[in-house]
Amino acid sequence: MERNRAVIICLSGGLNENDHPSDKMQARLDRTVELFQSGDFNAIITTSKGTFRDGTSHFVTEAEAANAYLITQKIDPLRILKEERSLDTVGNAYYTRLLHLEPRGWWEPTIITNEFHMPRVQFIFDRVLDGKYNPQYIEAPNLGMGSEELASWQRHEDEMLKFYEHLFTGVRKGDLLFLEDYIYHRNPAYTGIEDDEHHELTRRIQAIWAA
Q1: In terms of residue numbers, what domain contains 202?
Q2: CB–CB of 173/131 below 8 Å?
Q3: What is the CATH number of the domain that holds 169?
Q4: DSSP characters over the chain
């Protein structure tokens, strides 16, 4: 790994009622700090304006809350970049690629998220990033949830992964035209309108959390 091509992408994971990182997000940030202190990375990118389906409002973006936490951990603020447009994991990958990775030639990103979230994250980033990228994936522990909540999150992730596997069927790796069309015209996180497929996904997700 060449340092001038290497960057950490720390995915957001929701904020608490005080607009600070949630437990699962803090686990991602702590893993990020640990890796960054190795000296092998050029920068850290924090992600997200907010979380679709969160149902709460916050005074700061998730990327800004992550940025503030990293600074308390003695990370140089000049080495932290924010992606504050995304509202879901596809958006995390799309906007991070366009705003930060592509312009700087950072072809070897290391993506950090919790264990339960990683299968979907890896699937999405592997399809949003094209062939010149060599992404690595590192898991943070599943903190801040009991066994029942974790089981619900895992069922949630299984449903989401099945949806995205169907969505990306036949799509060329890194196809920006497809991604632009999906985000701006079909993705309810950004359009505010659910088509039948997304409505069915929402129904299944709601059923998991209502159980």
Answers
A1: 3-210
A2: yes
A3: 3.40.50.620
A4: --GGGEEEEE----B-TTSSB-HHHHHHHHHHHHHHTTT--SEEEEE-S--TT-----SS-HHHHHHHHHHHTT--GGGEEEE-S-SSHHHHHHHHIIIIIHHHT--EEEEEEEGGGHHHHHHHHHHHS-TT---EEEEE---S--HHHHHHHHHHHHHHHHHHHHHTTTPPTT-HHHHHHIIIII-HHHHS---HHHHHHHHHHHHHHH-
How many whole angstroms separate alpha carbon 38 and alpha carbon 67? 19
**Residue 201 in tokens:** 């996904």
Number of domains in the chain: 1
Q: What are phi and psi of 80, to 5 degrees?
A: -115, 130
Structural tokens at position 51? 């979380």
Does the model's pTM come out above 0.90?
yes
Per-residue pLDDT of the chain (211 residues; tens, 9 = 90+): 555 669 999 999 999 889 999 999 999 999 999 999 999 999 999 999 988 766 567 889 999 999 999 999 999 999 999 999 999 999 999 999 999 999 999 999 999 999 999 999 999 999 999 999 999 999 999 988 899 999 999 999 999 999 999 999 999 999 999 999 999 999 999 999 999 999 999 999 999 999 7
